Inverse folding.
């Protein structure tokens, strides 16, 4: 009986299980990442959006991975631009008036995975929030933009680091 217990303990101690609560799914060869500045190329420009988006992406990678940030040529490289920052009417009512408007932000991302180039891509991500048409964009912009940026970051994180 003692031998069976000893064998079980040795077997369990020798097993190595890798799991992550953050959903990170990366090769063990990947140790670093680089996030280049995302310039704003949209027709309608929010003056803080480029800086906010770039910094929030860096912080998300730092918080949710064990990777180290480097200035250039990381194992993972994130670069791109803000392509669209747009407000459109939604929920048209009688007399052609909108009950709600939608703020949409689109970011083009070029993702380079140095350890597995087949996982690299270049594509656009969009997210939006609706707001009451009686509010002006300037009144609600500071509340909506962080929410939209968080949605974008989650989609980008899932498509790259989590590899979903």
């Amino acid at each position: 009986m003692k031998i069976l217990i000893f064998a079980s303990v040795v077997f369990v101690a020798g097993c190595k299980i890798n799991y992550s609560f953050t959903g990170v799914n990366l090769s063990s060869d990947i140790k670093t990442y680089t996030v280049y500045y995302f310039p704003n190329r949209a027709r309608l420009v929010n003056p803080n959006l480029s800086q906010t988006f770039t910094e929030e992406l860096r912080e998300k990678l730092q918080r949710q991975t064990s990777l180290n940030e480097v200035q250039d040529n990381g194992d993972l490289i994130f670069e791109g631009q803000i392509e669209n920052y747009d407000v459109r009417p939604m929920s048209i009512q009688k007399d052609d008036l909108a009950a709600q408007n939608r703020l949409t932000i689109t970011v083009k991302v070029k993702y380079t995975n140095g350890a597995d180039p087949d996982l690299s891509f270049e594509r656009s991500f969009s997210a939006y929030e609706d707001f009451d048409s009686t509010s002006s964009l300037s009144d609600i912009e500071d509340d909506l933009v962080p929410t939209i940026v968080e949605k974008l970051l989650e989609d980008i994180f899932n498509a790259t680091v989590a590899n979903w």
Residues 9-22 have pLDDT under 50 and may be disordered. The longest helix spans residues 137-160.
